[in-house]
Structure formats: structure tokens, C-alpha cells
Specification:
The structure holds 2 protein chains of 2 kinds. Chain A is of the alpha+beta class. Helix content of chain A is about 30%, strand content about 30%. In chain A, helix 1 runs antiparallel to helix 2 and helix 2 runs antiparallel to helix 3. In chain B, helix 1 runs parallel beside helix 2. Classes of the chains: A alpha+beta, B alpha/beta.
């Protein structure tokens, strides 16, 4: 039984948060080398979409140069699951995850696959607006190769 | 930080090699690299994904945009040597039907 590992990051909710979050996951995998490739791939694929969505949309109505939007990222790994949580003080998310579907594979859709891909990659993806903050929680049961 | 190697081979085929993650930050660089090739008349482009450690939906969108612009100019864009994560993303999005992975860069335009 390996000890659970939990890592956190607090940063501005902008594009730089995407690579910072992926770097944090890289550190998690280094500290939890027994996590299989498929579990890593599933979580990182979904995590990149969620932090990308946060970076793109939480400050969409802010004046240019405003840096008041922050995101707190937690990633973890236990014997049972790998997961991530995001809490940001940005604008509410204007999307219902139960309505998200994957666009058809054609050349007219260059975008719109992000959250559908995240939902397809992990076992659990939830969004809640609580006390003026956006909360995202993702997890995958371990067991991939 | 993602680096991009861009070259044109002896047959006039453009080869773009992203090294690192293709996420919402670096996807813009891929769009630029492919559109510069196509605008310069190199309309057959291979994106060599052997050193692309990660692809997200923005990177996928950049590949689709590149494919569209190459075809509109009379050419095509093909992808070669994807890593396991890239294959997973192509499968989950069903985009492997549109961007069929090729085994080699040199053979990407054969057949």
C-alpha cells in the first residue's frame, strides 16, 4: 500500500495555469511511480481540458490586464484513484455537463470537443457553483495498464 | 515550453515536429507553422507527433485547421508516429477517422 500523495498549486486563472497544472501532475507521477500509463493519460487529458476551460472563460468579461481571477488546483493519487480539483473565483460556468456531447468527426468543428473529451476520459467529472466560486472535481478509478 | 521544428523534405513535403505538449498555449504556434508552410506553397504537410508528449482539444483543433487549409490549397495534412496519449485523444474524439495516424513521416503520403 503506497502512501496517498496530494499536491496543490495556487495561481492566476490564465493560460500560464495550463502548463503549471500539467507540471504539477508530472510531479505527482514522479512521486507515485506505480500509477499506470493509462490512468495518467486519462486524468491528464481531462485535467488539461478543465484548466483550459477555466483559463479561457472565468475572466471572459474582465477588462484587459485584470488579474483578480485565481485558481486553486489540487491533484492526488491513492491506491484506489487519481483525481484533481479546481476552485476558481471566476465567472459562473455557463454550461450543463449533462448536455455536453462529442461533435461529429468532421472538419467543420475545430473546437467544442474540450469538455466532451474530459467527460469521456475520466470516470467522474462534476461542476458546482458554491459560495461564489466554481468547483470542478475529476477522478479515475485506478486499474489501467 | 514547446519547440517546433519545421522543414521541407526533398519531395517538397513540409514536416512540422512539435516537441513537448500541444495544449491551448502551444496550439497557436502549430497553427502558425502550418499556415506559413501552406501560404508559401507547401501544401502537403506531415505533422510528426513522435515527440508530442500531450495533445488537448486545442491542439486537435489546430491540426483540423491545418488539414482544412492544406486541402483548400489543393494539398493535405497527415499525422505520423503519434504517442499513446495522442492516440487515446484521437480515439475518444473519433477524430482518428479524419486524422488517420501514419507509421512513418517518409511514408505518410504513400497511399
Amino acid at each position: 500500500m503506497a502512501e496517498p500523495v496530494r499536491l496543490t498549486l495556487a495561481t492566476g486563472a490564465d493560460e500560464t495555469a495550463v502548463d503549471q497544472t500539467q507540471d504539477l501532475l508530472q510531479t505527482l507521477w514522479e512521486q507515485a511511480p506505480d500509477v499506470g500509463d493509462l490512468d495518467r493519460i486519462r486524468l491528464e487529458t481531462a485535467v488539461a481540458e478543465v484548466i483550459g476551460n477555466i483559463a479561457k472563460h472565468t475572466r471572459r468579461l474582465d477588462p484587459p490586464g485584470s488579474d483578480s481571477r485565481r485558481v486553486h488546483v489540487t491533484v492526488w493519487c491513492s491506491d484506489e484513484e487519481v483525481g484533481a480539483e479546481f476552485v476558481d473565483n471566476g465567472l459562473p460556468v455557463a454550461i450543463d455537463l449533462s448536455d455536453v456531447t462529442m461533435p461529429d468527426p468532421d472538419l467543420d468543428a475545430e473546437s467544442g470537443r474540450g469538455l466532451a473529451l474530459a467527460l469521456a476520459a475520466v470516470d467522474q467529472l462534476d461542476y458546482e457553483r458554491l459560495s461564489g466560486r466554481n468547483h470542478w472535481r475529476l477522478s479515475c478509478r485506478r486499474g489501467g495498464a | 515550453m514547446t519547440d517546433f521544428d519545421v522543414r521541407t523534405d526533398a519531395r517538397g513535403i513540409g514536416v512540422v515536429t512539435p516537441k513537448g505538449r500541444l495544449n491551448m498555449v502551444s496550439a497557436k504556434q502549430l497553427r502558425t507553422a502550418v499556415s506559413e508552410l501552406v501560404d508559401a506553397g507547401t501544401t502537403k504537410v506531415v505533422v510528426d507527433l513522435a515527440e508530442t508528449t500531450f495533445l488537448d482539444s486545442s491542439g486537435l483543433g489546430a491540426l483540423v485547421a491545418g488539414l482544412k487549409s492544406a486541402r483548400q490549397a489543393g494539398g493535405d495534412l497527415r499525422i505520423a508516429r503519434p504517442t499513446q496519449q495522442v492516440v487515446t485523444v484521437l480515439g475518444l474524439t473519433n477524430m482518428d477517422k479524419v486524422l488517420r495516424p501514419r507509421e512513418s513521416v517518409d511514408g505518410a503520403f504513400d497511399g
